[in-house]
Amino acid sequence: QKELAESGGGLVQPGESLRLSCAASGFALNTYAVGWFRQAPGKEREVVSCIRNDGTITIYADSVKGRFTISRDYNTVYLQMNSLKPEDPAVYICAADVLCSTVSDRRAIWGRGTQVTVSS
Q1: pLDDT tens digits, one per residue of 34-71
Q2: Pick from 101, 84, 93: which is nearest to 33 by CA?
Q3: Rounded CA separation 51/47 (Å)
């Protein structure tokens, strides 16, 4: 069974950092594009970043450019989040599919998410 599991969320103060991980089981993640999404209460899910299977970074939301960095190794994709702001809290979710353009599709492989909270 193909599964994704996120980890690394937590409670931090504004300006601090977190690194999220998205680990695959049951399939080879290195053959998929992987996207990070976030969803805050009462808001629609938004794409944060996406990385192609070849490691080419294609997307960063304007709100995270210069602060977040996506990277990958064989079976895990990471999201390094620096200078966290009060508007960044959400459940962060990763998803895998063939292309970054399809990674938000409901037929993609989705994780369950990890909570990020930013509070002083």
Answers
A1: 999 999 999 999 999 999 999 887 788 999 999 999 99
A2: 101
A3: 12
Question: What residue has token string 């938000």?
Answer: 104
The candidate with the shortest Cα–Cα distance to 34, out of 104, 114, 116, is 104
Distances (CA, A) of 19 to 1, 8, 16, 29, 60: 26, 6, 11, 18, 16
E strands of the chain, at which residues? Answer: 3-7, 10-12, 18-25, 33-39, 46-51, 57-60, 68-72, 76-81, 90-97, 109-110, 114-118
72-96 tens-digit pLDDT: 998 999 999 999 999 999 999 999 9
